[in-house]
Amino acid sequence: MTTGIQPGQQPWLGVPEIDIGNTDLIEAKRLPPSLDTRSQRREITLPTGKFIVPQAHSIDDNGPTASMHLLDESATLSIGERLAKALPDRLTIHLIGDLGAGKTTLCRGLLRGLGYLGKVKSPTYTLVEPYKDSRIVVYHFDFYRFTDANEFLEAGLDEYFEGSGIRLVEWPERAQPFLPEADLEIRLQIDSGGGRTLTLLPLSPEGRKCLQNLDSS
Q: How far is CA 67 from its chain centroid?
């Protein structure tokens, strides 16, 4: 991937054709994925050997927003594992995306990155699944079945947002305005050409620190 900046022009990203005889590129595909939130180019590869392309930019005063294209489920699991290594002991993450966008897959990768080896299921019917056998206690929420935001309070789920731990919340908009604000918002969008676009938006100092840790990891 190459970048070029000419006077008076915007930065551009380009993906070069891959020569099958270029052994340097083939070897680079074995590298783990990386993330750059700064305004400079970096080639990103996944263990599957498929490229993802970042578009780093800042859209508000909260800090950098990182976006990337995930080609398949393996890529989604991989970035979840990398995110796990960047987490503090306390963080609330809101996951935004349509059905099938990969929210639960990302949570599965994150838990794997924290050392949890058991089965990870969507808490669509249980509303919350606690994972206390990982490096950090994780609470995985899914509010898809809510028809009224008051169900969040009626179920006593607000108590889970006290103290340390990681809160992963799918369909957070269905529990508003009672749901505590996110430190980090993760958006997953299904692309018409295949794969997913993932966007990371920090909304607090802890969220910005998490994104910085992800970049430096």
A: 9
DSSP calls for 166-208: EEEEESGGGGTTTSPPPSEEEEEEE-TTSSEEEEEEE-SHHHH
Cβ neighbours of residue 4 closer than 8 Å, sequence gap 6 or more:
11, 12, 14
Backbone dihedral region for residue 81 (phi beyond 0: left; psi -120 to 50: alpha; all else: beta): alpha
| Tokens describing residue 120 | 């990870």
Mean pLDDT, rounded, for 59-78: 80
Instruction: Please tell me what DSSP assigns to residue 17.
Output: P
Q: What's CA 152's distance to the chain center, in Å?
A: 24
> Are 194 and 67 spatial neighbours (Cβ–Cβ below 8 Å)?
no
Give the pair of three-digit tokens for residue 216.
């430096």
pLDDT of residue 160: 95
Measured CA to CA in angstroms, residue 180 lies from 86, 93, 169, 209 at distances of: 21, 10, 10, 19
Quote the CA–CA distance of 204 and 119 in Å, as a whole number. Answer: 31
pLDDT tens per residue across span 78-104: 999 999 999 999 999 999 999 999 999
The mean per-residue pLDDT over the stretch 156-177 comes to 95
Q: Is the pLDDT assigned to residue 37 strictly greater than 60?
A: no
CA dist., res. 12 & res. 139, Å (int): 40
Give the CA diameter of the chain. 62
Q: What is the pLDDT of residue 50?
A: 39
Quote the Cα angle for 114-57-192, to 5°: 75
